[in-house]
Amino acid sequence: MSDSATTTTALSPQFILLMATACGLCAGSAYFNQPLIYSIEKSLGISTSQAGFAVVLAQIGYGLGLMLLVPLGDLLNKRKLIVSLMVFAALSQILLSFSSNLTMLYFFTVCATFGAISAQVLIPFASSISPPESSAAIVGKLMSGLVMGIILSRTFAGFVSTFWSWEGVYLSSGIITLLFAGLMWKKLPSTTANKNLTVVAIYRSLIQLATTQPHLIRRACAGALGFAILSLVFTSMTFVLANPPYHFSDFQIGLFGLLGVIGIFSSSWSGKTVGKGHENFVAMLCISLMLFSCIPLFFAQQNIVAYAVGVLMSYFGLTAFHVLNQNLVYRIDATARSRINAVYMTIYFSGAALGSLTAVYAWQHWGWMGCVASILIFAVGILLIDRYDFRQQER
Fold first, then answer.
1. Rg (the chain; Cα; Å)
2. I want to staple 267 with a disulfide (CB 3.0 to 4.6 A). Which of 69, 101, 144, 330 is the partner?
3. Residue 192 φ then ψ, to 5°
């Protein structure tokens, strides 16, 4: 099967489930350290801000992988690329579990997340081999798997850290990822390298896409601000729940993060709704949810239910909005979806780093109210970019 090949045969539910599981396993590992900030701080004898910066580095490592490795999906054998990345990420996680100082923590955090971008090769691959009428729905299903991986990663990390150690989180995950890499090697279909492209041409075309496709850049920037909101919410979750009046443990924080399961339903719903041609409706609903989530989030330190509602609103809004954006940008060029995804996801994940950094800085200087104000500013930015982009596309 060639990289540029398309098929009119529907993908089997088992194959879709396998790819969705792979997406969740790979993407989830980039979020382990969010509920572990205080455990890492205590174990290594470092400050809260130093431990919190590892969350930012995890997003930076993921972003570098998106920029440098994902574009190669249009060039190389996808199965070899996916499995190689999984093995590299797994070994980096195992080495991260042996961190005894800040340098090792930072270095192997970047390495582990740099290799954890297999999902971003799988998603455009699945889209390209799907029948056109089911492509949007399949992207939604794979995003559901990715979201589930992110959600369960925090619960898994909190559970293992509470009953074992934060190091055990990365050691066990690394072993599981190695075993799953072997399974992926056996089950994924092989592809042939694209002989019409070179590495230089791939990276040159990235610049060309970024400079000639303003629609792609606008959707990516809107998505990045949305991911900044979500990253800010989940990074600051440890600060809110570990301190008065809640005093939650790592495991309890991880369980609270299960609220994000709503993202599974929002991804699937968004994919199906976009497939029916209701893009503008999806966009407005998602932006409204992210914007008005600030109201219940404002009361997070006084009422756990209000906090939960705010988290649900922001999570549903962002995950559905992300699926919408991916389906919109994939329409630009069906033969360059890995490169399109690389440009989109690199900008998108810069939002994760922005959100994590904003959470740490805002919490230190202005407390939770600073975090909520930042969410509101990001949401207004999304609204302005999205409305402008839809007007430009209509013209």
1. 20
2. 144
3. -100, 150
pLDDT value for 2: 43
- Give residue 30's identity as a one-letter amino acid code: A
Determine the pLDDT at residue 306: 96
Closest CA to 129 of 3, 15, 13, 20: 3
Cis peptide leading into residue 245 (ω within 30°): yes
Task: Say which amino acid occupies 32.
Answer: F
Evaluated on CA atoms 166, 169, 172, 175, the torsion sign reads: negative
On the 0-12 / 13-18 / 19+ scale of CB atoms within 10 A, 100 is exposed
- Angle in degrees, CA 267, 270, 271, rounded to 5: 85
Dist. CA 106–CA 46, nearest whole Å: 12
**How many other CB atoms sit within 10 Å of the CB of residue 58?**
26
Two tokens at 383?
């609204």
Residue 248 has which token pair? Answer: 């939650």
| pLDDT value of position 132 | 73
Which residue stretches of 35-165 are H helix?
Answer: 37-44, 48-68, 78-96, 102-114, 119-128, 132-163
* Residue type for position 140: G
Inter-residue contact 388 to 381 (CB < 8 Å): no
Token pair 């949401």 in the structure block, residue: 379
Low-confidence ranges of the chain (pLDDT < 70): 1-9, 191, 257, 260, 262-264
pTM for this entry: 0.74
pLDDT at 263: 64
